[in-house]
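Thread: quick sanity check before group meeting

JM: Hey all, I'm pulling together slides for Thursday and realized we never actually wrote out the predicted structure for the chain we discussed last week. Dropping the sequence here so it's in one place. If anyone has concerns about the input, flag it before I start.
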Amino acid sequence: MDAFEVNQLLAESSRTQQPYLEFLRVPSLSAGLYVLPVGGIDTQQPHTEDEVYYIASGRGAILVAGESRAVVAGSVVFVKAGDEHRFHSIAEELVMLVFFAPAEYANAPSDE
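JM (edit): ok, ran it. Output follows.
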């Protein structure tokens, strides 16, 4: 079994000073912690895999395929593969668990 504590993931994320920390990867799924500060800019591009965001804490909004919606602690958002999406209007630091299926970049074209 693999088990994770969000507080430990937050500490590791803080050490790496990166907004995204992948903490689980198997062929069928990957998971990460994504943290965006108040007023932060989300620069992500569409992914080739479906993804689910669980908002653990914070307050802001997400734009998915032209539709905007508020998010708060407890919100769950599904983004299908290829959809443009980004978080915006971040009023309280967003701490999110992100799940990709299959694992992130599993469907990305190879560089060959």
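AS: nice. The beta strands are 20-26, 29-36, 50-64, 67-72, 76-79, 85-101. The radius of gyration is 14 Å.
JM: adding both to the slides.
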